[in-house]
Each structure stands twice: as structure tokens, then as C-alpha cells.
Fold this protein.
Amino acid sequence: MLELTQTLNASDRVHHEIEEVLATGRTAWQQYLFFKSRAHGVCVALDGDLQSCAADEGLYHEALVHPAMLSHPAPERVLIMGGGEGATLREVLRHPTVTEVVMVDLDEEFVGLCKSLIPDWAEGAWNDPRLELRHEDIAAYLDHASGGFDVVVGDLIDASDAASPAAGLYGPEFYARLATALAPGAVVATQAGPLDPTGLAGHRRVRASLNGVFSRVLSYGVYVPSFTGLWGYTIAGTADLLPGGVAERHALFELRTQERGIGLVHTGPEALAAAFALPRALTRVLEAGA
Amino acid sequence: MLELTQTLNASDRVHHEIEEVLATGRTAWQQYLFFKSRAHGVCVALDGDLQSCAADEGLYHEALVHPAMLSHPAPERVLIMGGGEGATLREVLRHPTVTEVVMVDLDEEFVGLCKSLIPDWAEGAWNDPRLELRHEDIAAYLDHASGGFDVVVGDLIDASDAASPAAGLYGPEFYARLATALAPGAVVATQAGPLDPTGLAGHRRVRASLNGVFSRVLSYGVYVPSFTGLWGYTIAGTADLLPGGVAERHALFELRTQERGIGLVHTGPEALAAAFALPRALTRVLEAGA
Amino acid sequence: MLELTQTLNASDRVHHEIEEVLATGRTAWQQYLFFKSRAHGVCVALDGDLQSCAADEGLYHEALVHPAMLSHPAPERVLIMGGGEGATLREVLRHPTVTEVVMVDLDEEFVGLCKSLIPDWAEGAWNDPRLELRHEDIAAYLDHASGGFDVVVGDLIDASDAASPAAGLYGPEFYARLATALAPGAVVATQAGPLDPTGLAGHRRVRASLNGVFSRVLSYGVYVPSFTGLWGYTIAGTADLLPGGVAERHALFELRTQERGIGLVHTGPEALAAAFALPRALTRVLEAGA
Amino acid sequence: MLELTQTLNASDRVHHEIEEVLATGRTAWQQYLFFKSRAHGVCVALDGDLQSCAADEGLYHEALVHPAMLSHPAPERVLIMGGGEGATLREVLRHPTVTEVVMVDLDEEFVGLCKSLIPDWAEGAWNDPRLELRHEDIAAYLDHASGGFDVVVGDLIDASDAASPAAGLYGPEFYARLATALAPGAVVATQAGPLDPTGLAGHRRVRASLNGVFSRVLSYGVYVPSFTGLWGYTIAGTADLLPGGVAERHALFELRTQERGIGLVHTGPEALAAAFALPRALTRVLEAGA
């Protein structure tokens, strides 16, 4: 039996049984593994870390994309950082206000593998005329980006560990550079690692980086079964980003999904609004780091 | 290295490293294990299944107790089924409206172990004059119970498996019997197993049982880190139980915690209200079974 | 972290960490996995079962081949059943008496993968003019084999489980058919599953099958680190096969390796002779089945 | 499910399922765990390391004791270092030449637990009038030992890791001190850690220590199923200790077991003689360290 084993925290380890390896190898940038899981369907791992599984990628990607997109009154130009599977792109393009999406994913070979091995995840998004797909380092891209993005969605590999090669993509300098590419009123969303109370260092680092650049930073979390954990995200923007509590968020998300005709298949406006209502056991630790 | 291994679903298994075994043995009813975990503090397992850990039992027990207690305008008489650790009792007694709590836990020896090994979990509740502690079979107790309970809280061992010896405590006959012990307008809460989309059979069985007896049944879930999963609960009652959406629930929980002077240390009124806003990926499956 | 997990017996499971997957996929007959292990070098698994690792395949294959070859005074015609990695062939060809080797391995694609991915294991054997390599079912081959083999070496996948698809290749009918392809005085060797005292059913089945056909059947075992166990083999032949005890075996193996100029790099004549001196804890159970 | 997990080497980890914990706790010196295993019966672990299991402790202890005892022409005074389970003592006392056994095990509480929890392992040896049982540090004991031991058997906890607290008990100074307590022609045996080719450092350290003190040092190994490995031992003594090869050893062990009327239930004279015939893959590495 083949298993993908993930360390969750100082005590716990989860073993995912692999039903069948579909493809594995190494691109110029990372080691990839596409496999089938009885519980979670086709899954993708990079450098030994689980990225997404068919059974709940909809949950993960809706939660990543829509709070930011719905917080913005009319997102036209969107930047996706990473997101090789094509599912972040799929969700962004659901918003009819969008006129242009620049997706920057360094690893052309990996994106190619996703196009051929999990084509249905993108639901045709790869061929959308609004897409400009670029394969270059996101930091390098920002040096020459035309800018003016209304929404930025960060779907980069996790960097809970400060020593990770991706850690720079969650640091204060990177976000300061990103800020120069934003339109007024822009919203920036990023996945931000697990919200495990015993391992919040990664998420707190992202928050600290964003707090140096944006007036308002909010954390939220959604339980993603294949990650066996509460997955954390942040959105950041101007001082009036998502004001109020769960009632106001719910009302806003409900209104804008209706206006834009977007069905949230896996989450829903109420669940997305609720995702920001983290338990105090978590917010105490998160805010201690602010 | 000693590990407690738990099967999560058809593919996944979590290994909890045990830092130190504090006590283990067999009572007349079950095998117990108290141990220390680096990530989760002192933990309790029964018959090989993790029950609670110090680091997040507050989250688990607040979520179990308060939605039901706050949904009732003035809960006076409360019945706790199981709950040997004393933490469910602790949370119930926080409500100043309570005049009498009957706690029925079959296993006197296990309750004694909790009193001596994890006394701080109860925060003095064992000595509260409002408590009547009984060690007998809950089904047998119901045959001679004086009745008139305003709130019932079920903190019995999990029975996701229909073949479990505890399965009867989640079945329709049991709830029908329980109904005879209720005051008008009573609310019944119970832990109801993990909300894992690939293993919802257990939770759906509880819902189905409750649906046969109560006019309104609601599911909610809270991510409990030591369980590496979204833990499911249900509350059931009359047709007007917790009407409306997340905004109304939030307002109600906020109001009543203030009225009763209850601080929800681990969850909070907004987080508890949000816990009912399950993602559609789950509600679709749950309601398909209704 | 990717792991190959193997069940050892009713209680134990070993996890082999995979450093890198080199190749994986499915031939017409089986699923293959070539991977790198920090402890064992390049390893090969078929249908989830570890077959051989670079670090100790020399130990495994010397132990499989040489006791039979050295027990025969002058093995000329040799049949290898299975043995896709080419290492069994390599060891057989070391004996200068050999004039012809027929190797029958059903899975042409797997043999091709071994030729390209682990070519050094064969040490040139694939090009030896004495080799006739056939890809067909071994049972079908025996129906039309020219016969007259002096030594037969079975390096087929393990069939500890009577329900395995390979179980027929270890059964009495198969060995009866094999007997018709043998020269007088022939010796038949086969790998015969782990010599785990709590799981000897597989090895005993092989012995029982051989006992129905051959006058003398001997078991022996060598500890193979990557298998985390004592691996079992049998040799079978006429009544005068390997007479005496460890002293006589040692003398014979020493004499014939010297005569034939064969260096046993991983085992040695004394270690091979000793491999037949199984502890009584094992022989008691093995002979109970005779 | 409770599991005892042991790291075997740089890649492999074995999980032993625990059927039932019989006793666990901490003495003044170490953490103990007595448990039942489906495959191996009652097992004992100290500080998280498996020590012995009922199903194969006979194999382990016969292999530890008898090569040394049979190598000596008439062992009268015997020193056992460690050996709390009482099984080493049991094997030593089988030799009718023995007139006095001093057993020094630091941990009186652990020995008491063995006496009460696994009394049958000792087969009455605890009450043998030849036994002097002492609970003190073995190094301290040697400072005042009367000396003149014919055989010493080291059954101390493993110290494969040079940083282990027990490492001193396998070092050159300890053996030099031990040498002063020996009678002429004495034989010293000790368990010496796993003979895993990728982790021979521990065994080689023991050999190096002994080589500095004794004229002849021999390694041997026996596969112990519950250890999932080939377990290593050494015997050391004067230049004429166990001369010759497997034939001579076999003859000697056969002769002396008959003379002394000792039945080797789990191993046998031939298997013990064979245990010294290690494969060249191991001896190359072991001797490279001489």
C-alpha cells in the first residue's frame, strides 16, 4: 500500500492511502504527484505536500476566490498568483464583471500536466479569451506588470515554514511590491496555511506581512476534509473592506452572488460569511501576533 | 514511540503521538486511556477512540452545550447523558437559570478517574449543589425519570458505526423515550459524530432518529483540532427552534450570553452562530437523507 | 512524504519512506513502482509488494540461486521462472557449467523497464548468448518445453495468500507438471515467502506441494533487511540432495564455489550452509505441516 | 488503535499494534509498558523500545546465553548484567555446572513488575538458591565485586545511539573494569543491537570496546520476529574462544548440550552454530571497523 504522509503538528501525522499513482515526476521547479484516493478522488501533491483533491477542491477554491471577489463592487482586472490546477481561474471567471485575468504560474510543465490530467477542473477556463497565462516568477512579473488589478488571488504553495523556498512570497517586501500593482480599492486574497492552534506561525506571518501594507486584514477558515484541517485564508484591502459582522457579510455575499448570477455550489453565501467568524480560541492567538 | 491511531475515512488514518501514558485500564464498561500529547495536552480515549483533549475540550464542550442552552429562554432543569469528564456539566452550570442538573453516566469508575486525574476540567462543578449525579444506564433511567427537562445534552461515546454498542443511544426508539422526559419547549442537543463528507452515515442516522420525534432538527459543526475533523452536533426541538439564518442566531446568542453573563471563552456567540452555516457540500448530503 | 506500507503479520506493519519515485504505472499484468529509498537504494515493488532493493538484492538473489546450483554436480540447462530484474539470471550465469538458460517471465513490459531502469542489476546478463528469454505464461511454457532442465529457479511473485492469483504457481499440480521438464537429478529452488512464525501458511503450502512430487525438500532462510524479515526459500530434488548437516553443506558449498571460481559477494559458502540451520522454533512449525 | 512505533533505520518504521495495555508507568529509572500483541503475545517495552515478547523471548534469550555458556568448559560463577525479565537467569541456570549467579539489575521496581506480571518467563528461577539478586548500578557493583566470574551475560537495554544513557555500559572503560572481575578463561556475552547493514554503528562500537580488552571477539545474529530484524550479539574471551568454523562450533555445541543435558527448545545447537556465519555483506562492514 502506498501512502502520502503529512505532518499536521508536533504530535499528529495523517496517512492518506494512495489507490493509484496517475503520474509523478519532477519539473524544473518541483516534484509532482497525481494520484487517486478512495475518499477524495484524484489528488495533486507538490514536493510531498497535498495541494487539492477532486472531492473538495471546489470547497477550497470557492473559499479562496469568492470572499475577495464579492467584497469588491466590480472586479474587472484580476491577477492570479500560482493556481496551476486551473480551478482558481475557473472560479474567478464566474464573475461577469471580469474583463481580464492575468495568471502567473512559474511552472509551465506542471500547468501542462494539469491541463491534460485534470482538464475538467478548469471547466473550459483555459480557453477563456479573458485569460492571459504567463509562466514566470511572480516577483519578476510584478516588476513589469501593467498594474491596476482590482483583485489579486494568491494560490501559491504553502509556506508555513519560514525556511520554505516559497516563504518570500508571503513576506512584507513581496506584498509591498504587490501593492504597486493594485487599482484603488483593490482586494488581495491568499491561502494562508492551516489554522491549527498549535501551528499558527505560518498564518500569523502572512497576517503580519499584510498588516504592514494594507489597512484592513481579515482571516477566515474553511474545513477542507482532504487537508484534515481548518484551512486558513486572508483578505486584505482598504479600511472599509467587509465591515460589520456575520450578518453584514452574509447580506453582502447574498446580494452580490445574486446580482452576478453566481451559484456557490460547495460553500454558499452564508457559509462563506460564517467562515470569518473564527472561534475565540483562534482569534486570541492570531491577534496576539498583530 | 507510542501512538493512538484513528481511522478517519476510507483512505485516511491519523496517528497521535503519545508523550506519556498517565493511566490506562478497563472499567466494567470500557477501556480507558489518559495520556499526554505534545500538541493537545492531556487527552482521554475510551475503547481506543479519542474523546477529549485539554487543549480544545473547551471548544468541543462549549459547542456541545451552549447552542441548546441559549436557544431555550430559561433552562432550569437539565439532563446530561454521559459526559464523564465533567466539562459538559461545567458548561451547563454556567447558565444562572439552571436549578437542577441530572447527570447520568453509567461508568462510575471512569467518572472517578476523571475526578482524580483531570479535576480542573470540571472547575468545581462536581461539588455544585444543583448536581444530581447518577451511575446507571441512561435508557433505564428514563423509565423512572421524573421528567420535565428543559434541555438535554447528549455527550455519549460516538456511534458512527451502526453496529456499535452505543448505536441504540442514537436510535429512534431511544429518542421517543427521551421525549417523554421533556418539558414543553425543550431542546435536545447531542454530539453527532464527524461531519466528514465521505462518512456522514453516523450523523445522518442521528438526524433521522431525531426527525421522527422532533419538529425541527438542526446540524452544526465545529472544527476540533485534536479530532482532526469538523465535529458534528445536532439540536432538536419544537418548530420555532432557532429560526432564521446566521444573523438571527448571532443576535440571539449575543443577547442571551449577555443577559446570563456567560463568557464563551473558546467559541463566542458569532462563532457558534456561524457553526450552523455548513457548506452546501455537506448540507446537500445531510438533507438528502432527511 | 510518500511511504510504501507492508503488512508483516497480524500486528505489525512496516512503513518504507520513499525518497523519490522513479517510475510507476501498470503493464498488462501488474502495477509497478521503481523508487529510491535512503536505506535500501533503488527498490522495485509490484502490485504494492516490495520485490527487491539495490542494497540487498545481492543477498536475496545469491541465496535464491546458489544453494540449488551448488547442490547439483554440473548444472548445464537451467530454467528461471520469473525473475524480471535480471539478477537471478546474473547469478545463474556465474556458474561456468551452464550452457543454456531459459528465462520465462510473462511480463515483457516489466522486463523492459528493468533493462532500462536498473540495467546494472543484470551485469550484462541480458546479452549473454546462453540466454533464451521468453514472455509467456510459465504453465503454458511447460506444456511445450523441451525439458531436461538440471536446475529450476522460481523467482515468481510471492503468494503467501492462498487466494493470490500467483497461488497456482506454488501448488501441487504446477510442480507435478514442472517435474516432467526435469533432467534426472534435477534441483528445484524457489523463493517461498517470509519465515515468520506467525505467518508460515504460505511457506508450508509450498513445502506441501513440493513434498508431493520430490523425495527431499529443504527449507532455508536469509534475513533480508529491506524485507524486514527472514526470507524463506526451498530446494527440492532426489533423496540424496544436500545430505548431512551444516558441516557437510559448508564443505560442499566451499568446494564447488572454488571449483567453479564463483565468489559469493553477499553471502558466502558458510552463510549459505548456515541458512539451512533454522531455529527449532521454526522447524517445529514447518515439519508439523509435512 | 494503540501502536508502538519503532524506527528501524533511515527509511523504515515498524508499527506494532497493541491489543491491550497490561501495565504502564515510570519507575525511578525508566518508563515501562507491558502489553499484549496478537502476533507476539505479552511484550515488554522500556522507554519506548521493545525489549522482549513472549512469542520469541525464548529465541532471543537462548541465543544470548548459550553460546557463551557452551563455549566455556565448566561455567560455575556467572554474572548477569540487567535481565529484569528473569529469562536470561532461567537460561543460565539450566547449566548444571553453575553454582552461583549474581544478577545485577538497577531497577528493583521493574524486576518486581516482571515477577508479578510475567512470572512464567522465569520458570521458577527467581527462587533458585544459586541466585544472588542485587539492585544497584552495574558499574558501581564492579567496584566491589568479589570477581572470579566464568561467564558474564549482558542483557542491558540497547544503546545503538552513542548518546544513549546506557552507552557507557558498552564502552571500553566499562569492559576494562569488567575484565578485572573475570576468572581465567572467562567468556563475556552481550546483546549488541540490530545487525542492520545501514545501522551498524551501535554493534561496531560494542565490538571496538571489546577488542580493546579481549583477544577474541565474535559477532553473531539471530532473526527475532518481534524485533523485525536480525538481532546482534557478541561473545568475547581468550584467543582460543570458539575456534574453527561452523562445523567445529556445531560439534562443540552439540557435545556440550548433551553432556549437560540441556534442550535448546527455540534454537538448537546447529542454529546457534550457524548464527555466527554472518553473510559477507555484514562481516565486511563489521570488520572494516575492527
Q: What stands out?
A: The radius of gyration of chain C is 18 Å. Chain C has a mean pLDDT of 95. Chain C touches chain A at residues 1-6, 15, 18, 20-21, 24-25, 31, 33, 48 (CB under 8 Å).
